[in-house]
Design brief:
By secondary structure, this protein is mainly α. The protein has one domain. The protein is built from 7 helices and no strands. It has helices at 13-25, 35-48, 54-68, 81-97, 103-112, 127-130, 133-137. It is globular, with a radius of gyration of 15 Å.
Length: 150
Amino acid sequence: MTTDFSPRLFERDHDIRALGEGLLACALPREAWTHEAHLAACLCLLTERPDIDVDAEIAGLIRRFNESVGGVNDDSQGYHDSITRAYVAGVRLFLSETVETGLAARVNALLRSDMGRRDWPLRFYSHELLFSVAARRGYIEPDLAPLPSL
């Protein structure tokens, strides 16, 4: 696990909403789709878009976005189902525990938390399993510890 962790934080709620809406509309520049943007968009969708079933739709949303910016979703790049689903579980858990109420404050607290770290899924998965083709293509249960649930 890495020890240095300095996420890029957000100043305004508007910037986070723009990421969520940009993901949905495939209207973000590819370089804007960072780790922090993934988590910000997930939190935004979970809290502000009850019309979207994140569990059912997240794979298609991210795959479609990747393809819209020239990306490929295959065995070695693009959408990763197990990592995405681990973070969705983590964001939900974070939301159930946080005292923050504003969108930017919540996202920034998430990004500063253990659940916001890039290596957070490796607390539950071995590197070998998490970065396998099977885990990329579909959800695989963790082999080290169960994902947190509410």
